[in-house]
Write a structure and sequence with these properties.
By secondary structure, the chain is of the alpha+beta class. It contains nine helices and four strands, in the order H-E-E-E-H-E-H-H-H-H-H-H-H.
Length: 183
């Protein structure tokens, strides 16, 4: 995430379209994410703003795109499916989720879902789910005192060995080292 600088606040408050594409912002009061030129910009307060680098970062935090400014752009049918699945994964990452259960939940074949994800997001649904889980694991390790095993459980990876392997691949260090470096 970015910080809310004076320049970014001015861009939001003045609805400056020149900043569209350089960041998006979330409004914490209604979990809406907008581009800087959105009509809602002048109605917000700095304490209610979170600045994001990417669309996925906003989704990981539970924000939904504004229907007025559409910060993620117009979505094709494939992109809409991928977006809805990403929203679902971001909200349900703690649960056991398989490609088969996703395809059932979204009434498409697992092959269609996987190909749509690879085309639109350039990663598989499973890779995206792991990224969401690692995002939340990093937050829990930074902010909490839970054991590494409990952090793994909380993000939907009950196998400690697998959690440690995936975490090290994602972060470049073990979960214990990450916690130490974050303090």
């Amino acid at each position: 995430m970015y910080s809310l600088t004076k320049k970014r606040w001015q861009a939001i408050h003045n609805r400056d379209a020149d900043y569209n594409g350089s960041f998006i912002y979330g409004v914490t009061t209604d979990k809406r994410v907008c581009c800087p030129s959105c009509v809602h910009g002048s109605d917000t307060h700095p304490e209610d703003i979170q600045i994001f680098k990417t669309n996925d970062e906003a989704l990981f935090e539970g924000f939904r795109p504004c229907s007025d400014c559409q910060p993620f752009g117009e979505l094709s049918d494939k992109a809409d499916l991928v977006f809805r699945v990403k929203e679902y994964l971001s909200a349900n990452y703690k649960n056991r989720i398989t490609l088969e259960s996703l395809s059932e939940d979204f009434s498409v074949s697992s092959g269609i879902l996987h190909r749509a994800f690879m085309t639109v997001a350039e990663e598989s649904p499973q890779s995206y789910l792991l990224r969401v889980r690692m995002f939340h694991a990093k937050k829990l390790l930074k902010d909490g005192k839970d054991s590494v095993a409990l952090v793994g459980l909380k993000v939907g990876i009950p196998n400690l060995s697998y959690f440690n392997t995936v975490f090290k691949q994602e972060a470049g260090v073990t979960a214990v080292q990450y916690r130490k470096q974050s303090k």
